[in-house]
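[INFO] parsing input record for Glycerol MIP family major intrinsic protein channel protein
[DEBUG] input buffer:
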Amino acid sequence: MSGPWISRYIAEFFGTAILVILGNGAVANSFLKGTTANGTNGQSNGGWNFIAWGFGFGVMLPAMLFGSISGNHINPAITIGEAACGVFP
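[DEBUG] output buffer:
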């Protein structure tokens, strides 16, 4: 982990934002009516495979972009839990 603390916080913010946007966006696109992954007759054309790819890219991209800056704790719950247990400074 390199750089000042503010760059680490900014990297974590954008990493989490990318995960939420791609992962939850894939779920919304699969299940909301009138979206591109949802068929016109109400059947989902995206399904679990589309959602898995969305979350997969949502984890991979921040890891590649921000992993060297902040350590890639893109799930704030894990970071807070580790800090509460004394594992994460």
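[INFO] DSSP finds three helices and no strands in the chain.
[INFO] shutting down worker
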